């Protein structure tokens, strides 16, 4: 039976070093939830606290309404998939998957039936009698997944399960994991530092840094309306431009270093005041105008310094008149690619770009859901 996971005010210390200062999180029953962040941010530590492999110095961990803080790991009914597969090299594929069922009150027929079911589910049934050293990395990871699921755990925990695979296999396996998790419907907590992987498979993502959750939400929401500058720059690519926010008759406009102004109609009303700001624009959110005809304040002028052709799109690297550097993405032109030295004029898609307070680094935009709490705000202010 799948469960929801509730974490309230979790604290983790190693001696005098506090890795997780005060973390609260709700993971819904049946969801694939990803902990995402740079190395050392505490995501694997939190996963191991859920599993019972790490001690808990403060707070409450619950599966549904059952507190698990002091529960033995073996009684938490979790399945675990590790980075290094951790399948037994001296056992066949079938025996690896059967292993967890041997310690349960099941007949031989039931064990075979359940093993066959999950071998089929992860598409390794044809390798049932092979030894692990005759399998590819992707096939070994499928076996590890089958072994974790066959015991019908309440929670599936996955710690960087694809990091040892090559790029093509990672893409293949994340589709496998997403489809199987959806079919089985088990609550899954997935740890990765790979932003694209997290975006591709997750129902929800928590972005972590230094033991603090900066934003928790659906991948689309996090990408389009990040809660702070750390999230904006960690997820995908963002161009950061210095600016100043002005408010006149209830209307907000942002002025860039060269005097170009853009009006934003989607800044929260409680944030309507003059201040220093940072504008974050994805490469696809900067609009490119070619030629010399525009007036100086129509946009920000720049010179193409380099380009990178990637098939459907071409990435341009532009030195702006403000002294800033940006990357822009344009659909590849049939006739030509702009050579270095080409002049361009950039304007902003104000419905998609984001504005942040320069001091706190927090978002000023409407539509920012599940903004990180006070601990994250304090942390953002220190960064």
TrEMBL record:
The keyword Oxidoreductase does not apply. Gene3D superfamilies: 2.40.50.100, P-loop containing nucleotide triphosphate hydrolases (3.40.50.300). Coiled coil: none annotated. GO terms for molecular function: ABC-type transporter activity; ATP binding; ATP hydrolysis activity. It holds the Pfam family ABC_tran. Transmembrane segments: none annotated. GO terms for cellular component: ATP-binding cassette (ABC) transporter complex. Keywords: ATP-binding, Nucleotide-binding, Transport. InterPro entries: AAA+_ATPase, ABC_SmlMolc_Importer, ABC_transporter-like_ATP-bd, ABC_transporter-like_CS, Mo/tungstate-bd_C_term_dom, P-loop_NTPase, Transp-assoc_OB_typ2. Residues 5-235 form the ABC transporter domain. SMART domains: AAA. This is sn-glycerol-3-phosphate import ATP-binding protein UgpC. The lineage of its organism: Bacteria, Bacillati, Bacillota, Clostridia, Eubacteriales. The gene is ugpC.
């Amino acid at each position: 039976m799948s469960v929801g996971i509730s974490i309230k005010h979790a604290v983790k210390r190693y001696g005098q070093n506090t890795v997780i200062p005060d973390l609260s999180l709700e993971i819904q029953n049946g969801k694939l939830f990803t902990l995402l962040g740079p190395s050392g941010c505490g995501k694997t530590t939190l996963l191991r606290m859920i599993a019972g492999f790490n001690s808990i110095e403060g707070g409450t961990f619950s599966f549904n309404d059952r507190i698990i803080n002091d529960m033995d790991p073996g009684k938490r009914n979790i399945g675990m998939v590790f980075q290094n597969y951790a399948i037994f090299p001296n056992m066949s594929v079938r025996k690896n998957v059967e292993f967890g069922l041997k310690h349960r009150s099941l007949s031989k027929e039931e064990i075979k039936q359940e093993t066959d079911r999950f071998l089929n589910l992860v598409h390794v049934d044809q390798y049932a009698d092979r030894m692990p050293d005759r399998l590819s990395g992707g096939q070994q990871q499928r076996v590890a997944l089958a072994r974790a699921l066959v015991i019908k755990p309440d929670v599936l925990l996955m710690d960087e399960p694809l990091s040892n695979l090559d790029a093509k296999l990672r893409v293949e396996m994340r589709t496998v994991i997403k489809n199987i998790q959806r079919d089985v419907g088990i609550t899954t907590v997935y740890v990765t530092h790979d932003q694209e992987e997290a975006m591709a498979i997750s129902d929800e993502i928590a972005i972590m840094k230094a033991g603090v959750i900066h934003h928790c939400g659906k991948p689309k929401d996090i990408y389009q309306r990040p809660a702070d500058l750390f999230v904006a720059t960690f997820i995908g690519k963002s161009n950061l431009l210095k600016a100043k926010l002005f408010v006149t008759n209830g209307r907000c406009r942002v002025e860039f270093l060269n005097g170009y102004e853009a009006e934003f109609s989607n800044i929260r009303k409680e944030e309507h005041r003059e201040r220093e700001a940072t504008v974050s624009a994805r490469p696809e959110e900067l609009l490119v105008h070619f030629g010399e005809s525009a007036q100086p304040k129509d946009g920000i002028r720049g010179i193409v310094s380099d380009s990178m052709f990637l098939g459907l799109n071409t990435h341009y690297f532009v030195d702006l008149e403000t002294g800033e550097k940006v990357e822009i993405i344009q659909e590849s032109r049939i006739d030509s690619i702009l050579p270095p030295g080409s002049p361009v004029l950039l304007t902003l898609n104000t419905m998609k770009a984001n504005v942040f307070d320069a001091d706190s680094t927090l978002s000023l935009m409407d539509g920012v859901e599940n903004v990180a709490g006070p601990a994250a705000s304090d942390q953002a202010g220190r960064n």
